[in-house]
Amino acid sequence: MMSTANYIRSDIQQMKAYAVADVPAGFIKLDAMESPYDYPEDMKKELGRALAAAPIRLYPNPGSCGLLQVLRDTYAIPADASLVLGNGSDELIERLTMLVSKPGAKVLAPAPSFVMYRVNAEFFGLEFIGVPLRPDFTMDLDAMLAAIKEHQPALVFVAYPNNPTGGRFAREKVEAIIAATPGIVVVDEAYGAFSSDSFLSQAGQIPNLVVLRTLSKIGFAGLRIGYACGPAAILDELKKIIPPYNMNQLSLCAAEFALQYQPFINENISRLKGERERMRTALHAHPCIQDFPSEANFLTLRVPDAQALFDKLYAQNILIKKLHGMHPLLDQCVRITIGLPEQNQKVLNIIDELYGNP
Ligand SMILES: *Cc1c(COP(=O)(O)O)cnc(C)c1O
Q1: Contacts (Cβ under 8 Å, ≥6 apart) of 5
Q2: pTM of the model as a whole
Q3: pLDDT in tens, 340-358
Q4: Which CATH number fits domain 4-40+262-355: 3.90.1150.10, 3.20.20.70, 3.40.50.720, 3.30.1490.20?
Q5: Which of 29, 219, 340, 343 is within CB 3.0–4.6 Å of 35 for a Cys-Cys bond?
């Protein structure tokens, strides 16, 4: 008897599903860079009214729903850049990979970086080249340029700032990569709101640059709204392979609504940045912890025993991300999302308990 397994791609059968953590009730979730700030009650009521008016009997039409213009106005997206929405920037990463998936095409990115770059390359049967960062998680530009020259990648991903390491690569290095790459360079600014620099103002002006952004890390991960900005020559092709109704009416409506609350969003961003620096300073005092600079809403640390720290926090209902085992450079590393001040303090206290008061 033939089983359906005979018909399913064997490479997919061998893959592991992206692990979305099941979080017990009452846990403090510091594993996925979600915002800890809930809406105020009055804002929720307004959102309810806005959603009630959303025309859910109709298919969504991003072009006419208003969100595109709100994004352009809010983030000063250049008029000559095209703008495409995705169901999370994850969908745009997938479709940008599909866009270049000719036989033999290659995808390249620094490593370690966002795992979905590799996963999507593999989905489309493309070779993925991960160019190791330096041990301090800065970019090895010479190695990048040599790999670009050798492999002539169709697509290069640069997370700016980088996940899971938190740092922002030097702008000049990213510029050199864009100049040296024959194919498309995607500068993924998922953490752009927490960063001191951005390529967004150049979107549309550099022929092979696509800038990816998302609402996920600034308080709206549940809406699944990402967007790509870049030259029409690339994005007009991308539009052809985005499913016609990929966005949903409620998300489009909620995003347009949420972006009106810029003071709320910006205040939360600056609080998180402040907490990030406060935590980094406190952790820096521990001689046994190696802290890395971050321009994102998380900190990456090397500790004496990543599993022990993970377990100790877990036992106190705090979930972080253990990076150890994902890449050789991430030996004994953990990634901790910045939460509310009292949550961060709880983490710091537990670290003091484990490693002694500095
Ligand atoms: C979180 C993250 C994304 C995914 O964002 P969504 O818009 O939620 O799909 C993309 N890139 C990087 C580097 C991320 O860390």
Answers
A1: 13
A2: 0.96
A3: 999 999 999 999 999 988 7
A4: 3.90.1150.10
A5: 219
Hey, what are 146's tokens?
């040599």
Q: Are 95 and 283 in contact (CB under 8 A)?
A: no
Q: Would you say how long the chain is, in residues?
A: 358
- Please choose from 191, 217, 223 the residue to mutate so as to test ligand 1's pocket, defined by most ligand atoms within 8 A of CB: 217
Tell whether the model's pLDDT for residue 21 goes beyond 80: no
Tokens encoding 263: 């003071």
Residue 65 phi, psi dihedral angles, 5° rounding = -90, -10
Which CATH code is given to the segment(s) 57-258? 3.40.640.10
Using an 8 Å Cβ cutoff, are 90 and 116 in contact? yes
Q: Which of 212, 297, 227 is nearest to 259 (CA)?
A: 227
164 Cα nearest atom in ligand 1: 15
